[in-house]
């Protein structure tokens, strides 16, 4: 099928706003009487809050000093307000107060806040809040946190409100234990020809969004709560605030202007409950809280953090017979924002391989660290780091070619994945993706330097969105008087280009030029229709389908109106973007402009009215996982692909030069090739940068040692300026997607760390089990091996 | 953290010393690219910040007799754009290339880079191997200190509370010099290890000076390695072995001590081979 708009490199609709600095972000919003907030954060990773002295902070210009227990309000008459209610946030597991209550569970947790007329006054006053702690033993590592004598971080775990599909283990630090079983893993492992066990670690990393998290909360005198925030999930924010503060949903208004990067770290809720809680003590005043860069490490969410152990059984024919995996997620002090990552990682931890016998125990473990949240890839990079490195190491140990070994076991149409779902042709051409990447990397170039060691690696991958079974996307479509079109969705364009892609889908379906369609930029729960969340790489798919349905409904209304006027059956009518007509003759039809606001007859008689249409989409057929096996139709979609990396390593310094990075992905129809490529390249760079230099480092005292860009290094343009970047899209149409489009967003992050690890091995013979692979770590391992070899030579 | 302090910008030395005397431990700034990071991090809590940029005598690059004088307020960009500097000391270009980013190079000054006494600062090792001296001015007048005697510890120098750096004096001697450093990626970063070497080709032919950054509490001259090399390429291995005795590295977030030792040796070997090969 030939498309006019879909499949073209349309220029991003937000480009001019952002390039010229005109785009409005939360921090740009000016409101009269707005107050500022400074937050006092815990210096202790785990402690009882003995008492808090607030009096000293009540300096001129301060309106309120807030703690988890209540507040000292000093705006008018000095007054102590105590909470009668214990607020707890969380939709899957309600375990987190907006501000620490009774105890602190990580260094950096908000303990108190000062609201003042300026940020300077608030900051100065915040220094005068004295918090007295009674320290408790703390635990940072999930392996230690599941030991019997580990300090318990949530004594009340058994009493929290929790959704039935999640399995906490009260009395321990395990807030969710997902089990997946297929076949009989343990007996098969006992009989396997070869059995290997390997352990891996993926540390906490920072999303490092350009725009910090921020929120303006205003408890209006009318009793309504108005929120402006930098969020991927305005409806989720609304639901959470309505629930914890017990107000009707329609009286909470959440507005999201431009968002400067999310990567999952602005999904669920982050600073909104805290800001709304603080603002509740100064009703009538908008209260603004924008995180500093340093606060973003502790005040939003961090990503990843996983200790993984995998035991693999392999037959003498090279087929994988069984896999047994234990994943321990270092979930941080509160579990709600990571609980689904635990499940998603469990679903996907076999990688894109056909394995008959599987046992997965995926555990979300509380630790005295900042909370983990969604991060581009959502558990998939962690498990692919584990599984693909594992297979690569097994291939080396067995003396077989990793390519042959992996390809022999790849999922293919007809095979059953670990969840019991049968893979179909239209799920995408995994094998072709793998072959493309392998061809691209397997004959690496000569080293640039005489000290260079060159190696390549490749990692086939899969990803599925983990979403509630009724996760809905909605769209409304409105014709304007000149027959131009405004589409409203609540999908957030945080830089990924969804506004442009959705406009292209609408224009194509309406057979209008792109310039005739506008998708609203500002999402407001007051005006734009429901969207579950902008996460899981699903906007093009689900919001795209909602837009398509809105178009269908709009066209159907147009035809109905035209049918009434022309006295024919609506089914006989056609629509070509300009006219609704019968008998195949557009010249005898009614122009769109004479229908879209209702029809005006020759004598002035009005028929019909302005056309506004609505569409929604919920992925069909999803179920909860089976309580016993963990299997089921829990993944709405699969996207398959493969990634490769070619590195050159300086044997003198350990410095890693990425010569080439490749992704081939079967993403169905590509709506906008240049934006799609941008997504994949950005994801590869972000994930590769993380794999080479990023990790949040905790001191023994539980505090982050590198919570600023001075010592938390992310890739800069210099890092990959000489890297050849190849992105190949295979376009097997996805029957459930708009114009055949499939999920495509986070996927570029999934396999890249493992591909890097494999490439390093190929170049140096050194296996990494832990990220990041820095020049320092690589050099020290090479030196250690040198010393080892020298010692061996001496002894022989 | 936002912090309030008194900000002063004197227009002459006399005004400066008068103002400085009024506050306990005032903090001097030139570009402010390092001081404000510390103020923001709450590790520096000054009551007064005195901006030196209004004092003309601290600026300028000029040749007087056999020496070249670099004003303390010379920005990194000015250094790069000075024909006089680049003609005599092309090694500065190697420092500039790895020093921060455009925005910071436009503000940060040579004086600030030295006076802030960061163990990992980029310019001190190069200034040391170029035999630079620091000219210090205070209420009591001027004094001159060799750069290797300038640093006392991290963030500690021989500057008295009311003294400032006025300029650097570098002998206009032709030297073959090189600077190498390593950070954590290819983008902007503080150095984890740096090495500067200069071979005198004119004044004392064959004299080699070696200085190191980020491997001791201060930038240092590598005296053991210098003693070993004696200007002879064939003694390189000995110098590489000896430089370990110069290093007093610590392990921190930017690198483990053992890694720093490895890298000092690696960078020194690379520089010596290039210098002797030229």
Please tally the helical runs of chain B, counting DSSP H or I stretches of 4 or more residues: 11
The global form of chain B is globular
Count every beta strand of chain B, where a strand is a DSSP E run of 2 or more residues: 14
Number of helices of chain A: 16
Give a quick account of the main beta sheet of chain A: strands, pairing sense, barrel closure.
10 strands, mixed
Q: Provide the β-strand percentage band of chain A.
A: 15-25%
Structure description:
The complex is a heterodimer of chains A (796) and B (278). Helix content of chain A is 25%, strand content 25%. Chain A is built from 16 helices and 31 strands. In chain A, the strands form 7 sheets. Chain A has a 10-stranded mixed β-sheet. A 5-stranded mixed β-sheet of chain A has the order 9-17-16-15-10, with helices on both faces. Chain A has a 4-stranded mixed β-sheet with strand order 18-29-30-31, with helices on both faces. The radius of gyration of chain A is 28 Å and the shape is globular. In chain B, 32% of the residues lie in helices and 24% in strands. Chain B has helices at residues 13-22, 35-40, 76-81, 83-88, 91-98, 102-107, 110-115, 123-129, 223-229, 236-242, 257-277; strands at 6-8, 27-29, 48-51, 61-64, 67-71, 133-138, 141-146, 151-153, 156-157, 164-171, 175-182, 193-200, 208-213, 220-221. The longest helix of chain B has 21 residues, at 257-277. Chain B is globular, with a radius of gyration of 19 Å. The mean pLDDT of chain B is 95. At the A-B interface, α2, α14 and α16 of A face α11 of B.
């Amino acid at each position: 099928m030939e498309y006019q708009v879909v499949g073209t490199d349309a220029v991003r609709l937000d480009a001019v706003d952002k390039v010229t600095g005109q785009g409005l972000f939360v921090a740009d919003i000016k409101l009269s009487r707005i107050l500022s907030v400074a937050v006092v954060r815990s210096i202790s990773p785990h402690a009882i809050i003995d008492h808090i002295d607030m009096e000293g902070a009540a300096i001129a210009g301060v309106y309120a000093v807030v703690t988890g227990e209540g507040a000292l309000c000093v705006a008018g008459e000095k007054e102590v307000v105590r909470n009668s209610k214990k607020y707890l946030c969380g939709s899957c597991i309600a375990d987190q107060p907006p501000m620490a209550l009774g105890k602190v569970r990580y260094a950096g947790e908000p303990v108190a806040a000062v609201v003042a007329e300026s940020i300077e006054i608030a900051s100065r006053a915040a220094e005068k809040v004295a918090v007295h702690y009674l320290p408790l033993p703390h635990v940072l590592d999930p392996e230690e946190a599941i030991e019997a004598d580990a300090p318990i971080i949530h004594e009340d775990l058994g009493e929290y409100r929790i959704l039935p599909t999640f399995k906490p283990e009260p009395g321990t630090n395990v807030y969710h234990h997902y089990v997946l079983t297929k076949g009989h893993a343990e007996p098969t492992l006992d009989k396997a020809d070869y059995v290997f066990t390997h352990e891996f670690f993926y540390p906490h990393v920072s999303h490092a969004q350009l725009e910090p998290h921020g929120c303006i909360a205003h408890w209006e005198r009318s009793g309504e709560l108005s929120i402006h925030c930098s969020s991927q999930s305005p409806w989720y924010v609304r639901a959470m605030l309505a629930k914890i503060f017990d107000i009707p949903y329609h009286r909470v208004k959440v507005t999201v202007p431009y968002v400067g990067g999310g990567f999952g770290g602005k999904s669920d809720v982050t600073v909104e409950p805290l800001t709304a809680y603080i603002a509740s003590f100064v009703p009538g005043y908008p209260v603004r809280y924008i995180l500093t860069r340093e606060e973003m490490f502790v005040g939003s969410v961090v990503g990843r953090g996983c200790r993984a152990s995998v035991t693999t059984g392999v037959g003498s024919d090279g087929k994988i017979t069984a896999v047994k995996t234990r994943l321990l997620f270092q979930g941080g002090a509160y579990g709600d924002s990571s609980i689904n990552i635990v499940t998603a990682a469990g679903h996907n931890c076999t990688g894109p391989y056909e394995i008959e016998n599987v046992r997965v125990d995926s555990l979300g473990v509380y630790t005295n660290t900042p909370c983990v949240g969604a991060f581009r890839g959502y558990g998939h990079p962690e498990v692919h780091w584990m599984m693909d490195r594992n297979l690569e190491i097994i291939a080396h140990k067995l003396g077989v070619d990793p390519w042959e070994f992996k390809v022999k076991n790849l999922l293919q149409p007809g095979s059953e994945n670990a969840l019991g779902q049968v893979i179909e042709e239209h799920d995408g051409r995994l094998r072709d993706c793998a072959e493309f990447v392998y061809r691209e990397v397997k004959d690496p170039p000569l080293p640039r330097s005489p000290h260079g060691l060159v190696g390549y690696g490749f990692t086939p991958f899969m990803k599925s969105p983990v979403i509630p079974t009724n996760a809905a996307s909605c769209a409304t479509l409105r014709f304007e008087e000149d027959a131009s079109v405004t589409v409203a969705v609540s999908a957030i364009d945080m830089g990924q280009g969804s506004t442009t892609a959705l406009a292209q889908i609408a224009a194509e379906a309406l057979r209008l030029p792109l310039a005739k369609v506008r998708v609203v930029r500002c999402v407001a729960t007051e005006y734009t229709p429901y969207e579950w969340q902008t996460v899981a790489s699903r906007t093009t798919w689900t919001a795209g389908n909602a837009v398509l349905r809105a178009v269908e409904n709009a066209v159907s209304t147009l035809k109905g109106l035209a049918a009434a006027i022309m006295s024919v059956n609506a089914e006989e009518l056609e629509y070509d973007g300009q006219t609704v007509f019968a008998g195949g003759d557009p010249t005898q039809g009614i122009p769109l402009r004479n229908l879209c606001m209702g029809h005006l007859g020759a004598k002035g008689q009005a028929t019909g009215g302005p056309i506004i249409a609505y569409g929604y989409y919920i992925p069909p057929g999803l179920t909860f996982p089976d309580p016993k096996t963990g299997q089921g139709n829990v993944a709405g979609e699969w996207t398959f692909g493969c990634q490769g990396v070619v590195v050159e390593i300086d044997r003198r310094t350990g410095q890693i030069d990425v010569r080439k990075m490749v992704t081939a992905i079967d993403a169905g129809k590509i709506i906008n090739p240049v934006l799609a490529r941008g997504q994949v390249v950005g994801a590869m760079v972000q994930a590769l940068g993380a794999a080479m230099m990023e990790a949040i480092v905790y001191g023994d005292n539980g505090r982050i040692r590198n919570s600023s860009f001075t010592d938390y290094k992310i890739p800069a343009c210099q890092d990959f300026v000489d890297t050849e970047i190849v992105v190949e899209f295979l376009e097997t149409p996805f029957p459930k997607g708009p114009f055949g489009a499939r999920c495509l967003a986070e996927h570029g992050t999934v396999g890249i760390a493992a591909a890097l690890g494999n490439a390093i091995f190929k170049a140096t013979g050194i296996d990494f089990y832990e990220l990041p692979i820095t020049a320092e770590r690589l050099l020290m391992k090479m030196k250690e091996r040198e010393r080892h070899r020298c010692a061996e030579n001496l002894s022989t | 953290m936002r912090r309030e302090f008194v900000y002063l910008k004197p227009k002459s030395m006399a005004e400066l010393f008068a103002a400085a005397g009024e506050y306990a431990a005032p903090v001097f700034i030139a570009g402010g690219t390092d001081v404000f990071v510390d103020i923001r991090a709450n590790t520096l809590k000054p009551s007064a910040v005195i901006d030196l940029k209004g004092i003309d005598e601290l600026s300028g690059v000029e040749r007087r007799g056999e020496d070249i004088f670099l004003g303390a307020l010379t920005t990194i960009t000015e250094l790069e754009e000075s024909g006089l500097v680049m003609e005599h000391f092309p090694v500065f270009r190697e420092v500039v290339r790895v020093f921060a980013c455009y925005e910071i190079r436009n503000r940060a000054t040579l004086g600030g880079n030295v006076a802030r006494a960061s163990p990992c600062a980029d310019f001190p090792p190069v200034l040391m191997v170029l035999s630079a001296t620091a000219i210090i001015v205070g209420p009591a007048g001027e004094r001159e200190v060799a750069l290797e005697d300038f640093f006392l510890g991290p963030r500690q120098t021989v500057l008295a509370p009311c003294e400032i750096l006025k300029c650097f004096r570098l002998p206009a001697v032709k030297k073959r010099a090189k600077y190498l450093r390593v950070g954590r990626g290819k983008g902007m970063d503080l150095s984890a290890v740096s090495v500067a070497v200069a071979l005198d080709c004119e004044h004392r032919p064959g004299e080699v000076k070696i200085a190191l950054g980020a491997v001791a509490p201060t930038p240092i001259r590598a005296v053991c390695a210098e003693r070993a090399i004696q200007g002879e390429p064939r003694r390189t291995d000995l110098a590489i072995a000896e430089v370990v005795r110069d290093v007093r590295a610590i392990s921190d977030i930017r690198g483990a001590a053992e890694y720093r030792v490895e890298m000092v040796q690696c960078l020194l070997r690379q520089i010596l081979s290039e210098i002797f090969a030229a």
